[in-house]
Amino acid sequence: MNDQITGATASDIATSVRELRDRGVLRPGAALPPVRELAARLGVNRNTTVAAYRQLAQAGLVVSRGRAGTMLVEHDAVAQEGYAADTVLRDVGTGNPDPRLIPDPTPVLATVTGRPVLYGEPVIDTGLEAWSREWISPDLPAPDFRITITSGAVDAVERLLAQALMRDDAVALEDPCFLASIHTVRLGGYRAVPVAVDDEGMTVDALRAALDAGVRAIICTPRAQNPTGVSLSPARAAALRELLAEHPYVLIIEDDHFSMLSSRGYESLIGPDHKRFALLRSVSKFLGPDMCLAVAATDPETAERLAMRLSPGTTWVSHLLQRLTLGLLEDSGVRTAIRAAGTHYAERNAAFAEQLRAHGIETRYVDGMNLWVELPIPAQIVSERLMRRGWLVRTGDGFSLTNADTPSHHLRLTVHDLTDDDAAQLVEDIAGAVR
Question: Any idea where the HTH gntR-type domain is (predicted)?
């Protein structure tokens, strides 16, 4: 079957493997021929075959097993955010907001209808644009920026990378990293370069190494980083800005997903003279995931490129949704409810972390929707033991960009909606699973 792989360029070889997989000639688990062997058979340079396999790996179609070779993988075996399907276990790894804390849009819905918007009209609601500019201006050092509305933060990241990069370009990602960012980069055919995260955010040395490796874009979560919950400190942000001043055309994408729920001040990597940037604020965490709307504040050139991808008649965000979002955000009662929700998440997560510490499991809550729990033994062992106790947890393995062969010692837990009794039981069960 491997003899059917053809091509004279990396793209042709990768396309050939894709087609063989699609036709069922190559099945998941099948081993591709060694790089040198395939290069010799096709009469191409070894580097051409290496590049082809890299394209397939970045697309999530193959995985390297070291001496065992390169294997085709199941494309649906990818970790995703949200509830696990088909389980009777109590799922505490969802990453979801508490539905009881999402404001009811019903009172505002009646106010957003009106004259239909037609092809050729402006794609951004003027009221939402003005509100967004006022919201973002205090936190964006760049003096000149434009507002674009997208269908959520992941949609914005995908479009931002597509307008700036070519296939196989390098993108710096936090390590550990938000699942959606990993998948967006991988499925876009870009090359992920891990940047270590500590208690103050991205480390300077790791970002410097990524820049030296030629990254053309950086995706960063300045506060409530998912999965760790850490936020950039003022000192760390200043040091990173100083470093990035030497690379003004590297695209910086900041995903401020927790924005209105966060108790932390906003620190940015974007300096006043940086040329390519985007600050993203989705409404999903506080108005609900189904709202599918994000505000993107970008430099003017990036805004123009995004506008071409959001042109009338193709993929602009519904004006009904934009008006509904604006109506909710302008409502004082909704804003009060959002602040209360942020307080709830902080108090529930902090209390759970304190209970874990009382059992000798060191956990520190900083910010965000989840808890990042460090364990003295591999997380997969704890996960399996918790399943026998009725809990479904999410291990840190899927969030890691490095040490793929080293088991994670972390759990990412979503526990803010547990009752006091359920929270106490989960703490006891985690402690028992560790023992």
Answer: 7-75
Q: Rounded to an integer, what distance in angstroms lies between the CA atom of residue 283 and that of residue 351?
A: 26
Beta strands in 256-398 (DSSP E): 277-282, 294-298, 371-374, 391-392, 394-395
CB atoms under 10 Å from CB of 327, counted, come to 19
Burial string for 398-425 (b: 16+ CB within 10 Å, else e) reads bbbbeeeeeebbbbbbbbbbbeeeebeb
C-alpha separations of 47 from 8, 58, 61 in Å: 12, 16, 19
Beta bridge partners of 272: none
CB environment 206-238: b (16+ within 10 A), e (fewer): bbbbbbeeebbbbbbbbbbbbbbbbbbeeebbe
With a CB cutoff of 8 Å and minimum separation 6, the contacts of 14 are 7, 52, 53, 55, 56, 59
Using CB atoms within 10 Å of the CB of residue 274, give its burial: 0 to 12 exposed, 13 to 18 middle, 19+ buried: buried
Share of the chain above pLDDT 70, in %: 94
Q: What interhelical angle do 179-187 and 153-164 show, nearest 10?
A: 30
**pLDDT at position 401, please?**
87
Rounded Cα gap, residues 382 and 393, in angstroms: 9
CA pair distance 188, 92, nearest whole angstrom = 30
Q: What are phi and psi of 195, to 5 degrees?
A: -125, 120
pTM to 2 decimals? 0.85
List, in order of start, the domains of the chain with CATH numbers.
Answer: 2-72 (1.10.10.10), 90-95+334-434 (3.90.1150.10), 115-330 (3.40.640.10)
Backbone phi and psi for residue 183, each to the nearest 5 degrees, phi listed first: -70, -40
Contact (Cβ atoms closer than 8 angstroms) between residue 373 and residue 366: no
37-93 pLDDT per residue, tens: 999 999 999 999 999 998 887 676 887 776 778 888 765 445 678 888 788 999 999
Nearest 10 degrees: Cα torsion 89, 94, 100, 105: -130
DSSP for 136-160, written as a single string: HGGG---S--EEEEESSHHHHHHHH
